[in-house]
TrEMBL record:
InterPro entries the UniProt entry points to: Kinase-like_dom_sf, LysM, LysM2_CERK1_LYK3_4_5, LysM3_LYK4_5, Plant_RLK_LysM, Prot_kinase_dom, Ser-Thr/Tyr_kinase_cat_dom
Localization, UniProt: Cell membrane
Source organism (scientific name): Saponaria officinalis (Common soapwort)
Domain of life from the UniProt record: Eukaryota
UniProt protein name: Uncharacterized protein
Molecular function via GO: ATP binding; protein kinase activity
Gene Ontology cellular component terms for the protein in this record: plasma membrane
LysM domain span: 55-99
Length: 544
C-alpha cells in the first residue's frame, strides 16, 4: 500500500505506527489510517532560502539530491535542511522528499533528468509488455510526469488555501509574569473573555456568523449545540455518565462523545489549536456550547480511558481485592502507544505552521480508543513556537506551570520553553510504560526526594554494570517477563536520552519517532519463545 497505492508518499513504518493491525495480515473491509507527508516552510527556511512552498517530490531510481535540486532550480542545502539529510546520506526510491520553492511550481520538465540505466519492472507483472525497451522507458516518464503533475496541482491548491486562511490568524496567548515556581496545571488558564451567555441551534456555523473576539477562526467547522442537547446527551450530567472530574460521557445522534465543562471564559487557544489540526493521535474537538457563562466542549470519546488508569490502577485495585485480576497492557500495546504519542508530538513540532509545544504531556493526558490507539488531549497550556524560537533564541517565562515529575530542569530553573520540553515529558511517559510506575513515587513530602523521580531512577539503571539485572527489576512486574529484553533495553535507552539533563543532548521528536518505528516493527515480529534463546547473548553484551 505504501509503495504502490500511495506511491511512496507514506512509509510502511508510518502506517504500522498509526494502525493496530498486523502489517502482513490485513482483512478486507478494515479501515486503515494512512499518514501522508506534507509540510509548510518554517520561518527559518523563509529567511535563509526565501522558501514560500514545500513541494513533495517522489524519488525515482537514479535520483540524488543534486539532481532533484537541479530539476527545480533550488539550492542543494535547502533540500538537505528541509529533509534533515546529511550530504552523503542515501535517498531511496518510492520515498517523498520535500523541496523548498520560492514560487508556485509550474512547467517542470521531468524528461530533462538523465535516463535511468536500471531496468524498472512493471507493477502489473502479469500484463504483456508492448513496444520493447523504448516504450517501457516512455511509460516510466509519462507515469512519473502525470503522477507528480497531479501532486503539484494538489499541493498548490492546498498551499493557496492555507496562506489565505493564515491571514485570519488569531492572537496568541502569552503567559507572563507571576511568581516563579512549579504550580499544579489548571483546567484552564487565562483566556480572552466572552459574553456571559450564548446559544444557537445545533449546527455547523461559519466563522463570520458569531461575533466573539479571538474565537472566530476556531468555530468555522465546529458544531454549536443547544444547552438542552448537552443535558439530554449526558442525562442531565448524571453521575453515572461522569468519566472523571468535570468530564461526562454523552450520546449525540447515537454517537458517543466526551463533554468537558469549563467554568467561565472559553479557552479559545485550546479550541483554535484543536480545530486547526487533524491527526489521528490527537483528540478531535467536534463542537461546543456556551450557556450562562460556562463552556461545554464536545470531544471524540475514548472508550478505553487514559493511560495512567491502565498503568497504575492495578496498584489501587490490588489493595482492595487481591482476587480480582485486572487487564494489563501488553508489551506490543505499550510500544504502540509510545509510537502514537511520538507521531503526534512530531506532527505538532514539525508538520504544522506555526508549530506548537504541548507543554503538559503526561500519562493522564493520553487517551486510548477502542483499538488502543493513543490520543493526546488537554491543550490548555500549549503555545506556538514563534519565529524567534526557530532562530535559536530561547523563549523564557517566569510563569512555570506543569506537573511535578514531567518538567524538564531548564524549564524549572530558567523558564526555557522549547520543543525539548515535550521530549523530556515524553521520555517520562515511556518510563511509565516500561515500569508501570508513576513519574513520582508517592511519599510523605510534598514533592518527595530525587530518588522518587522516575527519570532519576533510569539514570541509575544505566550506571555501571549489571544493566540487565537492574533493567529487569525496573520493568513492570505485570508483564510477567513477557517482553523482548533486547527491545526493552533499546526503548529504555531511548527514554534515557529523552530525559537527559542537557536539553541539547536530547533527540528531536522526529528522531524519536523513527527509532520507535523500528522498535515497534521488531516487536510485531517478536515471539515469546525467542526470548530464552536471546537472553544469554544479550546478558553477555550488556555486562561487558
Amino acid at each position: 500500500m505504501a509503495n504502490n497505492t500511495y506511491q511512496g508518499l507514506t512509509t510502511c513504518q508510518s502506517m504500522m505506527a498509526q494502525n493496530p493491525y498486523a502489517a502482513t495480515n490485513l482483512t478486507e473491509g478494515e479501515t486503515v489510517l494512512v499518514p501522508l507527508r506534507c509540510a509548510c516552510p518554517t520561518s527559518a527556511q523563509k529567511r535563509k532560502f526565501g522558501a514560500e512552498f514545500l513541494l513533495s517530490y517522489l524519488v525515482v531510481l537514479g535520483d540524488d539530491v543534486s539532481a532533484i535540486a537541479g530539476l527545480f532550480g533550488v539550492d542543494q542545502q535547502s533540500v538537505w535542511d528541509a529533509n534533515e539529510l546529511q550530504p552523503n546520506q542515501v535517498i531511496y526510491p518510492f520515498t517523498p522528499v520535500l523541496v523548498p520553492l520560492k514560487s508556485e511550481p509550474s512547467n517542470v520538465r521531468f524528461v530533462s533528468t538523465p535516463p535511468v540505466s536500471v531496468s524498472v519492472p512493471s507493477p502489473e507483472s502479469n500484463s504483456p509488455v508492448v513496444g520493447g525497451k523504448s516504450s517501457s522507458k516512455t511509460g516510466v516518464y509519462v507515469g512519473v510526469g502525470v503522477g507528480v503533475g497531479v501532486l503539484v496541482i494538489v499541493l498548490v491548491v492546498g498551499f493557496v488555501w492555507f496562506f489565505v486562511i493564515r491571514k485570519k490568524k488569531e492572537s496568541v496567548l502569552v503567559i507572563e509574569g507571576g511568581k516563579k515556581g512549579v504550580e499544579k496545571d489548571p483546567e484552564s488558564v487565562q483566556y480572552a473573555s466572552l459574553p456571559g451567555s450564548y446559544s444557537s441551534n445545533s449546527q455547523t456555523t461559519k466563522s463570520s456568523s458569531v461575533d466573539i473576539n479571538g474565537f472566530k477562526y476556531a468555530i468555522g467547522s465546529l458544531t454549536v449545540y443547544k444547552f438542552r442537547e448537552i443535558e439530554k446527551a449526558t442525562g442531565n450530567f448524571n453521575d453515572k455518565c461522569r468519566i472523571k472530574g468535570s468530564v461526562f460521557r454523552g450520546e449525540f445522534n447515537g454517537d458517543e462523545a466526551a463533554v468537558k465543562i469549563l467554568k467561565g471564559n472559553v479557552p479559545n487557544d485550546e479550541i483554535n489549536i484543536l480545530n486547526r489540526i487533524n491527526h489521528s493521535n490527537i483528540v478531535r474537538l467536534s463542537g461546543y456550547c456556551i450557556h450562562e457563562g460556562n463552556t461545554y466542549l464536545v470531544y471524540e470519546y475514548a472508550e478505553k480511558g487514559s493511560v495512567d488508569e491502565w498503568l497504575f490502577r492495578q496498584q489501587t485495585d490490588r489493595s482492595e481485592d487481591d482476587s480480582v485480576s485486572q487487564p494489563v497492557l501488553s508489551w506490543k500495546q505499550r510500544v504502540q502507544i509510545a509510537c502514537h504519542v511520538a507521531d503526534a508530538l512530531n506532527y505538532l513540532h514539525s508538520y504544522i505552521s506555526p508549530p506548537y509545544i504541548h507543554k503538559n504531556l503526561k500519562s493522564s493526558n493520553i487517551l486510548l480508543d477502542a483499538a488502543y490507539r493513543a490520543k493526546i488531549t488537554n491543550f490548555g497550556l500549549a503555545r506556538t513556537i514563534q519565529e524567534e524560537d526557530e532562530s535559536g533564541v530561547l523563549h523564557l517565562t517566569k510563569h512555570v506551570v506543569g506537573t511535578h515529575g514531567y518538567l524538564a530542569p531548564e524549564y524549572i530553573e530558567n523558564g526555557a520553553v522549547t520543543t525539548k520540553l515535550d521530549v523530556f515529558a515524553f521520555g517520562v511517559v515511556v518510563l511509565e510504560l516500561l515500569s508501570g510506575k508513576p513519574a513520582v513515587k508517592p511519599s510523605g513530602t510534598k514533592h518527595g526526594g530525587a530518588d522518587d523521580l522516575l527519570f532519576i531512577v533510569i539514570r541509575k539503571v544505566f550506571e555501571g554494570v549489571n544493566v540487565r539485572e537492574k533493567l529487569t527489576e525496573f520493568m513492570d512486574s505485570n508483564l510477567n517477563t513477557e517482553y523482548p529484553l533486547d527491545l526493552a533495553y533499546s526503548l529504555a535507552q531511548l527514554a534515557h536520552k529523552c530525559v537527559d539533563p542537557d536539553m541539547n543532548s536530547r533527540p528531536s521528536m522526529s528522531e524519536v519517532s523513527m527509532t520507535l518505528s523500528k522498535i515497534y516493527s521488531s516487536s510485531l515480529d517478536w515471539d515469546p519463545s525467542d526470548e530464552l534463546a536471546n537472553t544469554s547473548s544479550w546478558s553477555h553484551s550488556t555486562s561487558t
